[in-house]
Amino acid sequence: MSGWLDNIECPRCECLETVGEKRNVIASVAAGILFFTGWWLIIDAAATVPDNEDFNHAYHTCGVVSTVAFVMINAISNAQVRGDTIGNGCMGQTGARVWLFIGFFLAFGALIASCWILFGPYVVDNCCPDNLWPGIAVFLQNAFIFFAGIVFKFGRTEELWE
Fold first, then answer.
1. CA 56, CA 46: separation in Å to the nearest integer?
2. pTM
């Protein structure tokens, strides 16, 4: 009974061959939409709940840290991390890896902090029982920015740049 699916071939769609040529465009647009959606959600939460008691404005720090992490993660190329570049730059491959590590550290830290903001003040402490939207918006903002950074970093290919 083993191997009975080995000879089955899936039909190939011709449209998928042209998608490979537009991989950078698709990944960039998808990352941009995710990034925009994250900031749009937090702007909506800040506009609908302007009171500092219901939505502490210090919670915006997570979104700012996520944005800085997004820039840090995508500021260096994968070739720099691998050490395939011609110039070594300031610290070479090690510096690029440390920079990338700090960027991911900030991104994960902001995502974890946004989880704490959602569950700490809004779910467990129940500061606003009728309005959980600000906590949800802070978490979604950081999740969308985090995934935008991942899509923008790993969704593009550098072969077309050469």
1. 9
2. 0.83
